Known about the structure:
The protein has 177 residues and is an all-alpha fold. The protein has helices at 2-81, 84-115, 130-142, 147-150, 160-167.
Amino acid sequence: MEEAVSNARAAYEKMVAERDALKTGEADLKAQIEEMKGHHKAEIEELKLECTDLEAKVEDLQATKTWLLLGGAQLLAKNIHKSPEMTVAVATVNNAISAISVNFGLQNGYVHALKKKTPYAEVPLLNRNAEAELNTAVACNDSLTFLIVDDLPKLVDESLSKIKDALFFAGGELLKD
């Protein structure tokens, strides 16, 4: 019987030791779980900050897109239209056309004058409305609008590919990827 008690005591001590080992293991697991929670909590906070930053960037990009389509493109077109480079280019063409026109007019006027002695007011090709037509042309040039630019505000909620498609026109291949 003493042997049975000894075996029971050994079994009991072994069970106590296993229980203590399990308690120690449980405590270690709890510590690891808390450590993982802390680590993941830090990662989650970091991801939340990154998400907030990305949301702010998306809002900024949306605001930029809206501004570009509602006002920026119009401002760009107006600045190009009123730029010194455009003025010089248009003036150069106009001056060249004027020079040809003046030469043609002088030549025809000279020929006509040699043939007949017509008073100035009765010269057949004389445009008596030339100054008014020039003023109208200047006003038209100053108030020039671009249909494609005027239509851009309709694209505010569209994707970049649809915006590019809308801007694609003859010679616009540089705008495409």
